[in-house]
Write a structure and sequence with these properties.
The structure is a homodimer.
Chain A: E1 8-13, H1 17-28, E2 32-38, H2 42-51, E3 59-61, H3 64-69, E4 75-78, H4 85-94, E5 98-101, H5 109-121, E6 126-128, H6 136-145, E7 154-162, H7 167-172, H8 184-200, E8 208-211, E9 216-217, E10 223-231, E11 237-243, E12 249-256, E13 259-263, E14 275-281, E15 284-285, E16 292-293, E17 297-301, H9 307-325, H10 332-352, E18 358-359
Parallel strand pairs in A: 1-2, 1-4, 2-3, 4-5, 5-6, 7-11
Antiparallel strand pairs in A: 7-12, 8-10, 8-18, 9-10, 10-11, 12-13, 13-14, 14-17, 15-16
């Protein structure tokens, strides 16, 4: 079992801003440790180690290859631009490293499949870095959505994730560059919306995606703002909206026959702890329709560790089980990733086809 | 000026459940009074007066015509099924009565125009019964949406209004009957969503409506659940969802370049007073993206009178000004009503055309 004394040893590929958050998370996790940082520049790797208070023994490497060649690295965190994911995630798997891959995981499902196949054939654990999946709030909400007496049957979902990119972001960030993160806001933000929709539907794939008119692209054709409707055979329906052009917003509203779940910070909680959500069950009006009865209930969930550290712990638990008990990789995580990517691909295709419906096939 | 001593005298056409709430509102308003109730059955009118604690002097009439012929009635409240609106609202105007008309105001804009023309040519005030427009919370939110430093430029809107009809409702309510309220959930609930979208956009009409796939109709073809995307020329975008099939939910989220407005009870506040909403401005993450800074601010708005009484007071103020000062009817209210109906018509047409885009023209 991976623990403090015998942790899963992480190497970080690249010094992206998000790697600072994840390196802290690895340090907080009880069964993981950062042992190496690789960058195209040895100086940058050394600075990253020093600036982020990593242990002095952390090895700086002047290339990504060197991290993969490092025999004392068990797992890698890959926050590189999406266009580089296939190359480096596949290489990591081939070197026997477990893979924690930033989202969007790939430019398309075919690329993702190359990554998942490499992980599968080399017996390493794959997980995408969708942190909110690992918050205890998420598990508590899932329990309630599964309760027929508190939520009933799922009918509709709406999800929003936006933030306003400043002029520098909209000009220079990798997320608006067609050769780096070509999926733009759909890949960076819509990823979370789509995941929240699938999570709400207990990962039942919708049948059809229809992108919304009003999609905004930059001059290079990268999506800055878009949305879509997702439809299931039983007439469940979901909509989402993602954008680099509006104030930071993270709404999730899930409606069942008997209940409504709502929260305004589903991707990153307002505060590290506690985190809240609201559940309404069998909402009615009072006599004369002059107010609600019952009122929605507020739920407050505390956590000892932030969601990103819990994500690292979960990956390390699975990697430890492979290392110590000869277990096979857990297929739950790659399956969820692949469904998310399939829906994302369908939304992108719908945008490209002028907002026509696109079938989603597994 | 209409006041307690010299109020606007209301007649109520029909004894619908909602008329109980509005008769209380008329009694609460400081410048209005219920003086007559008409029903197709004199008994029902008498029972309504007794059951709702109306003054003993309130006149019961055994027909709608008799209310219109009552010379001591200044204004009528019309909660009849939508299919009867043209007939009775036009007749009321022709009898010189001001008209407070339940929503949806008409089955189509052409019908509404007959009503508005009758009101215009007879110099009576028209207002639809969209109560939340009159809550002081609404005015406060409008101020904030107009503040470039707190909200910025409007970019996106999402609105939801659902409730779960029980089996009896889904079988027998006038709102699922093609000969009575043929617009179904779109007319009953989507009306509020569309109004909230127009309100957010300061009544700038969107250019195009595209209904969402996943619309649910009953066997008679009446809409039970639907949604739509609305798009403006400047790429503002709105989506809404309305349904008789999900737990009662009323979400409004309005996103600007600098701010996000959110509330979960926009149609009928959770409690008569106070009512809340949340505004976030310039939302960012803390260092390392481990929380938000600043947090959204909670706003609490109290009101001396419920929103429906304030609606009655506003109509009575305008009616009193016509009565006492020879003013012309205020055109603001019919203009807002007509825009709402135009968008509703376009969404309905889009559904009928298989979710094709429909231009909205004034």
């Amino acid at each position: 079992m991976a623990d403090r004394a015998n942790p899963i040893r992480f190497g970080i590929l690249g010094c992206a801003a998000i790697a600072r958050k994840v390196s802290r998370a690895i340090a907080l996790a009880l069964n993981a440790a950062v042992v190496a940082v690789g960058s195209r520049s040895l100086d940058k790797a050394q600075s990253f180690i020093a600036d982020n208070g990593l242990p002095p023994a952390t090895r700086a490497h002047g290339s990504y290859e060197a991290v993969l060649d490092d025999p004392d690295v068990d797992a890698v965190y890959v926050p590189l631009p999406t266009s580089l994911h296939v190359r480096w995630a596949v290489a990591a798997a081939e070197h026997g490293k477990h893979v924690l891959l930033e989202k969007p995981t790939a430019l398309c499902a075919a690329d993702l499949d190359r990554i998942l196949e490499a992980c599968g054939s080399h017996g390493v654990q794959f997980m995408d870095s969708t942190m909110w999946m690992h918050h205890p709030r998420t598990a508590r909400m899932r329990d309630l959505l599964s309760d027929p007496n508190r939520f009933g049957q799922l009918k509709a979902i709406h999800s929003i994730f936006t933030f306003r990119g400043d002029p520098d972001f909209l000009q220079n960030d990798i997320r608006v560059k067609p050769d780096l993160d070509a999926l733009g806001a759909l890949g960076d933000l819509g990823w979370y919306c789509i995941r929240s929709v699938l999570w709400s539907a207990d990962y039942e794939l919708p049948k059809t995606a229809i992108a919304h008119h009003g999609c905004v692209k930059n001059q290079a054709g990268v999506i800055l703002s878009c949305g879509a409707t997702l439809v299931w055979d039983d007439a469940k329906v979901a909509t989402f909206h993602c954008s680099f052009l509006s104030n930071q917003t993270m709404e999730l509203c899930v409606m069942g026959t008997r209940g409504t779940l709502h929260l305004s910070d589903f991707v990153i909680p307002f505060e590290e702890t506690p985190a809240n959500f609201r559940l309404a069950t069998d909402s009615k009006f009072k006599e004369l329709h002059i107010g609600w009865q019952p009122l929605p209930s507020e739920h407050v969930i505390s956590t000892d560790l932030p969601q990103e550290a819990l994500m690292i712990q979960e990956l390390s638990r699975l990697a430890g089980s492979i290392r110590d008990s000869g277990s096979k990789p857990d297929e739950k995580w790659p399956i969820i990733t692949r469904k998310t990517q399939l829906v994302l691909d369908a939304v992108k295709e719908s945008i490209e086809k002028g907002f026509e419906p696109v079938n989603i096939t597994g």
